[in-house]
Write a structure and sequence with these properties.
Elements lengths: L3 E5 L3 H13 L3 E6 L5 H8 L3 E5 L10 H9 L4 E6 L4 H10 L3 E4 L4 H12 L7 H12 L7 H9 L2 H11 L4 H8 L3 H15 L4 H11 L1 H5 L7
Parallel strand pairs: 1-2, 1-3, 3-4, 4-5
Length: 226
């Protein structure tokens, strides 16, 4: 008997192609849509048996928030994450959010269908090697997402940390200088040193890196190097 499915992916062409292939195999595909921001609402409103939810960055913080919401509001829906070759952390994050499995973008349609049937039956639908790596990451998290932020923070002096926080707040050189009571030339030198230590080429990149690694959150704890 066919499964009531939804396919939600940022890449509409991929979503529609997969939906068409699954329809040909006798499944009832409720929708093939691509609204990344509205994925959870769409799945919650249609309540399929299984949802294939696409992602391009399985290790990105917060990427599985839609899974968390779907499982909170529609716990009976089995969510299969559809994505690229993942790291153990990405797999672990998907399961931690409540996903029933992970299907690679390059999987054959037969493999996708097997995963769907497993998910509907309440089984973990993921390749054994990926599952082993994910469980290892969950049981022994050797590299938490904010470890990189801690490492970067140790490279900066307390003054450079303050400069980075101000850069992330959108302050220009003049505002940084005024806020810290230093000359604009000194502020400019501090900014350049921060960019060099972080290995980025612009203030925007520095702010994005700081936000992504949790460096700004750690900066507030005073855990910085000399």
């Amino acid at each position: 008997m066919g499964v009531r499915l939804m396919v939600v992916d940022d890449h509409r062409l991929l979503a529609e192609a997969l939906a068409s292939a699954l329809k040909l195999r006798g499944h009832r595909v409720l929708a093939a849509a691509a609204p990344a921001a509205g994925a959870a609402e769409l799945v919650i409103s249609r309540a399929p048996e299984v949802c294939l939810l696409g992602t391009a960055a399985p290790a990105e913080p917060g990427i599985f928030d839609p899974v968390v919401r779907i499982k909170r509001e529609r716990p009976q829906v089995a969510v299969l994450v559809l994505g690229p070759v993942p790291s153990p952390r990405g797999i672990a994050a998907a399961f931690a959010a409540g996903a029933s499995g992970y299907v690679r973008h390059d999987e054959r349609i037969e493999g996708v269908e097997r995963a769907i049937m497993k998910a509907r039956a309440g089984e973990a639908a993921v390749a054994p090697a990926l599952l082993q790596g994910a469980f290892g990451e969950l049981l022994n998290p050797a590299a938490q997402p904010d470890d990189e932020g801690q490492r970067l923070l140790r490279m900066l002096t307390p003054r450079e940390v303050e400069v980075l926080v101000r850069v992330a707040d959108g302050e220009d050189t003049r505002l940084i200088a005024a806020g810290m009571g230093i000359a604009p030339s000194t502020a400019r030198t501090h900014v350049q040193r921060v960019l060099m230590k972080l290995g980025v080429g612009s203030r925007l990149e520095a702010a994005a890196l700081a936000a992504r690694t949790g460096l700004l959150d750690r900066a507030g704890t005073g855990a910085s190097g000399g």
